[in-house]
Amino acid sequence: MTNFFLTIIKAIYGFTETIGIPNHGLTIVIISILIKTVLFPLTRMQAKSMKAMQDLQPKLEKLKKQYGKDKEKLNIETANLYKENKVNPMASCLPLLVQFPIIIGLFQAMRAYFVPELGASFLWIPNLGEPDLWILPIMAGLSTFVQQKATMSGQNQTGAAASQQKTMLYIMPLFMAWISRTFPAGLALYWFCYNVISTIEQLVIHGKIKLNRGEETAR
Asked: If we measure between CA atoms, which residue out of 152, 132, 128, 143 comes closest to residue 202?
């Protein structure tokens, strides 16, 4: 899959040459948009499934209290609850499993492509193959924070899950900022673009879900 994405990166750079603005930074921006566009149906499916699962949590907790000592009965009633509400618990995991190898393959391809010897520059970045020590790491950290906030705005976690999510909201941006100082700047730039588009994507998804609910209520 790494070779597949390497071919795509080279093809997109060739496209920028064709239109008269050859630039590896622009190539990264275009790849980010293409990847998120291709994965949007899966992301939307995952977000809707997670939301449906969260909506069922009060009923699931009620079943646990009612049948907690009878595991077989609890499993049957839980399956019936999913069936009645047309919810598939696996639907929130499968899209992620499909996306994961794609993102890993693209990440490895970009790491192999954007080497110092390429000598690719973009805006203030003199070489996309070498780490940018301050500006891109800060942008990567801030964009990770905003992207996570946008994702959380569509969720209604409580208890330990909410506490864990709140902790990750602050730890992940710091981690991404720190690790971006060790990556080629091209990868940090991709991560920033990916977060910006993901934030827009989350806002669109959650807005669409609310719209659908409004339509259902009106009916």
From this structure: 152
